[in-house]
Amino acid sequence: QAYLSYSNIAALTHLAGKPGWDITKTLENVKIWTHEEGAVLSFKVEMQVKVPSHVAFSLLSDFSLRQRWDRHFLTCEVLQAVSEEEKIYHVTSAPMTGHQPRDFVILVSQRQPCRPQEPYTVAVRSVTLRAVPPSPEFCRSEILCAGFQIHSNSSSSCTVCYFNQVTSGVMPYLAANLTGSSKSIEDTALECIKFLE
């Protein structure tokens, strides 16, 4: 478990630090970036939020609040509180047209910064839990690496970066988005800012 948790945080930190991000969209408080490497597409959504970084961290690390701003989350229940910093959740998401509803079993690891210039981190990855085998009504999907980094800008504002390394499981949600025919990434980002503020 300690290894899983460490690798969860490390994978997100590694993804965030990669060179070669291309900006695809700029709005007033939101920027969307993409990164392609072989068959792996990652995206980053950067949001400017008018709340202190520790407040954004406490709200974003509690995934039971996620349905309040992310309409892709239908249900989210804690399966196991592994430690104060790690929880395992079962998430179900709304079906896309022509697709079965999906579900995910995810480990959410949260870390406070060790040094002032470091970000708060909330890392997410799929895990396998014997107690929750795949069920026929859902298509069990996988999150390779996703999560938030929260950088403090001032005592009352922060930059929240959401990352997701996209697998074919998440692709139907994003394909329309990145080609510009859907605005769900932007809308979700704006909902997230509104929720945090």
Automatic annotation (TrEMBL):
Residues covered by the START domain: 18-166
Gene name in the database record: Acot12_1
GO terms for cellular component: cytoplasm
GO molecular function, one term: lipid binding
Protein name: ACO12 thioesterase
Naturally occurring in which organism (per UniProt): Promerops cafer
Listed PROSITE patterns: START
Stored InterPro entries: START-like_dom_sf (IPR023393), START_lipid-bd_dom (IPR002913), START_lipid_transfer (IPR051213)
Domain of life from the UniProt record: Eukaryota
